[in-house]
Amino acid sequence: MSEQRSTRPHLSRRTLLEAAGGAAAAGAVGGAYLLGGREPEEDGWEDLGGDAIQMYAARDATANGQRRLLVDQWNLRHGDHRVEMVELSPIADLQYSAIHAALQAENPDVDVVDLDVPWVAEFAAAGRLEPLDGVDTEGFLERPLETGRFEGGLYALPFNTNVGMLYYRKRTDSGSDSDYASGVLTQLEAESIGTWGDLRQTIGLILQEDNGFTGGIAMQLASYEGFTVNVWEYLLASGAEVGADGRIDFGPRSRALGMLEELWGDLWEPVAEGKWTVLPAAVQHNEDESLAAFQAGLTPFLRHWPQAIRTLESCEAFSAAAADVPFEVGVMPMPGGVLGGGSLAVSAYSRRKNVSRALIEFLTGPVSQQLLFERGGFAATRPEPYFDARALIASGVADGGCESVGGPRPEAEAMYEALTDDPGQRPEIDRYTQFSYAFRDELHDKLANGDAPDFSDLAGRLDRAVEGK
Predict the structure, then answer these.
(1) Which of 19, 202, 246, 248 is the most exposed place for a label (fewest CB within 10 A)?
(2) How does pLDDT run across 2-22, given as a tens digit for each residue?
C-alpha cells in the first residue's frame, strides 16, 4: 500500500455566503441570483399552468448531487415555475440520441437541453436552439463561453466545463529526485512534460525499472465519444496541425497518419517485457475503468477529467498500489488537453422560452458555479472559484485531509491553466456527431488489434461523414 498524504490541520470551512460572496460580487448573470438577495425579475415569465419546465441533462455526476441541489434551490424559490430535471444516460452517444430525438420531433414539452460542446453547432445550424440575444456574458471564461457560439450568435451558456488532465504520483517527502522504480515524480519533472514525446520518454524511464506497472498511462479508448477525445488529444500533443475548422488532415502523406501508427505502437509494441507505453486494456476502458486501473497501480499516469481528483484524494484511493516512497495525487494539464463540458440551451420549440432562459442564467451564474466547483467537484465556467481556492491555499487554510469532503482544491491552479492556456478542441463543424462516429468506426478496431493497421481510408471516410454521405 502506498503511504498516504500526511493529515493536515483542519480549519472550519466558511459558510456558503462567505464562499460565494467574492464570486457573486463580481456580478451575477441577470444581476439577481444572489443567495439572500432580491428576487429575480419575473416579468414576462410564462404561466406554466401547474406544469414543470423540462430540462434534459446528463446524469448528475457531481459530488453530493450538486446539480440536482441547484435545481431544488430554484424550485424552492419559484414554486410556480418549477423545473423537472430529466437525467439522461451517462454515455454521451445516448445523451445525444435522446436530445436529438426530442428536438427533431419539435417536442414543445422539452425546454432546456444540456449539450456536449460540439453539439451546439449542429443543433444551432438546424434551427433547433433559441438564440440567447442580450444575455449578459460578462464573467465567463473565454473558451467555455465560445463553445456556445455559432456563426456569431450565442446559443448556449456553459454549465460546467471540462478539459483533459494528466494525473501522476507526486513525491511528498524531502527527496529531490524522482523515483522511477515506484513511478513517483517530483512536481518539477511532471510539469516539464509538455508533449506526448515528453510523456513517452518519462514512461519509458519508469517502465524500464523493476516494478509492477504493465502500462505507462491509463486512457479512455473504448468505442464511444471518449475515444475521439483521447485520440484527438494524442494527435494535438504530438504536434498535428489543425485547420480553421478544427479538423486535422489525414491525407495519404500527412503527418497525422504517422502519428496514428505511433499510437498503435504505443499500445502494442512493448517498452520492456510485459510493459507498454499505453495500457493495452485502454481500448476497452471508459472513465470509470481507466480510473480503476490507475488506482490499482497498473500505470503511473492517468488521462482523465478534472472531477477525478475527488476520488483520487480519498484515503483508500491507492490501496492496491505499492510504492517505496510516499506520494499523493499530482495533476497537471494533459498535453493536447481537449475542451469538454456541458452547455445549456433553450429549445427553439419550447413554449416557456423566457422562464427557461432565466433558468439557464441561474444555473450558470456565479453562485451556482462556486457551488458546482467547491461542493460538486466540477470545473467552473467562471474564474472566481479558481482564484478563491488558490487564495485559501496561499493563506494556509486546509481541509481535513483524505477523510474530509470538500475544502480548498489544490488542483485549482492546474485546472485554470488548462482552461485558459489555449486548450485543444474537437472540430467545430455542424456534422460533428457524424464525424465522430466515422472517426471511431474507422479507427477503433484497427487500434484495438495487435496487427499492423492501414489508416489510408480515414480521410475519405471523414469527408463523406461531414458531407452527409
Answers:
(1) 246
(2) 433 333 333 333 333 333 333
Reading the block at residue 366, the C-alpha cell is 456565479
Decide: residue 310, CB within 10 A, 0-12 exposed, 13-18 middle, 19+ buried.
middle
Closest by CA position to 466, among listed 247, 223, 236: 247
pLDDT in tens, 231-241: 999 999 999 99
Distance of CA 75 to the CA centre of its chain: 27
d(CA 41, CA 44): 9
| Pairwise CA distance, residues 359 & 112, whole Å | 9
DSSP label at residue 347: B
Q: Which three cell numbers stand for residue 20?
A: 460565494
Average pLDDT over residues 64-91: 94
- DSSP classification of residue 319: T
Per-position DSSP letters for 40-51, written without gaps between them: PP-TTPPP-TT-
Q: What is the mean pLDDT of residues 115-135?
A: 96
Determine the Cα–Cα distance for residues 310 and 87; give it in Å rounded to an integer: 22
Distances in Å between the Cα of 461 and the Cα atoms of 97, 358, 457, 466 are: 22, 42, 6, 9
In the predicted structure, residue 61 carries a pLDDT above the cut 60:
yes
**Rounded distance, CA 367 to CA 22, Å?**
9
- Supply angle C-alpha 32, 416, 5, rounded to 5: 115
Query: What's the pTM value of the predicted model, to 2 decimals?
Result: 0.87
- CB neighbours of residue 349 within 10 Å: 19
Residue 75: how many other CB atoms lie within 10 Å: 16
Q: Which amino acid is at 22?
A: G
Q: Where are the alpha helices (DSSP H) in 296-365?
A: 308-312, 353-363
pLDDT in tens, 427-449: 989 899 999 999 999 999 999 99
Strands 83-88 and 53-58: parallel
Amino acid letter for position 241? E
Q: Is 299 left (phi over 0), alpha (psi -120 to 50) or beta?
A: beta
What lies within 8 Å, CB to CB, of 148 at 6+ separation is 117, 120, 132, 154, 155, 156, 157, 158, 343, 345
Q: How many helices (H) and strands (E) does the chain have?
A: 17, 13
The enclosing H or E element of 367 equals helix 366-374
The angle at the Cα of 161, spanning 155 to 165, to the nearest 5 degrees, equals 145
Contact 372, 60 (CB under 8 A): no
The answer to whether 234 touches 263, Cβ cutoff 8 Å, is: yes
Q: Mean pLDDT, the chain, as a whole number? A: 88
* Residue 277 and residue 204 in contact, taking contact as beta carbons nearer than 8 Å: yes
